[in-house]
């Protein structure tokens, strides 16, 4: 490694190494962060203890209100270290409720934006249907708010974004990913369990990242911005995207293009990163 690259790495302030609360604080203007329904409010999941699981006092979701470059903003950060970032009744309600309030602010003339930090395996299995309902409410709230202001999603690492929250990420106005990010509807372990190790070896990390990692998802058009793991740079990119405003067309409006991509998939052969990129290029250029 040359000295210039080594110096750059040493000066970098890792975003991935921060916990959810610190990530939210990094994105908001200094001194502006105010946490809603925080850990001292003791709003915990009523279901985990019944199943012998220790609950967390904020249910693994941080709702931080403040300003970003002087503009009202709410940051919704999922703590991947708690239950794999899974969403249950309480955590899901915190995210959906905050997004709904942000949309209500906009209808009152207060231009409130939102950032969602996705570190989630999807629905919390211990809460099943309650978690699924909460994630559906999040989807609805994202679609409502993005009519007024950009909803920015960030997948940094190390958990990634899977299940219903992957759909939430796809609904965002803009999606930022790092090289360490992963994005998929089903996680590698689930695919291996259901389809067998010949289909997906979840222990083959290079293979996994080559197909669902941040760079691949960006090159396939499933993410908008590909960034290094640097907290200040990510904050700068978020500010730029807010200034860009609501996109002319959201990714979820391109369903016909995605259907063309799916029609090109040959399920009899093992997918390769290059083949997947080619399919997306063909599907979106037709």
From TrEMBL:
Q: Which domain of life is it from?
A: Bacteria
EC identifiers of the protein: 4.1.1.88
TM region(s), chain numbering: 151-177
Query: Domain CoA carboxyltransferase N-terminal: where?
Result: 1-196
Q: Please name the PROSITE patterns in this protein's record.
A: COA_CT_NTER
Single Gene Ontology MF annotation? lyase activity
The protein's UniProt keywords, in alphabetical order, are: Lyase, Membrane, Transferase, Transmembrane, Transmembrane helix
Q: Which residues form the signal peptide?
A: none
Protein name per its UniProtKB record: Biotin-independent malonate decarboxylase subunit beta
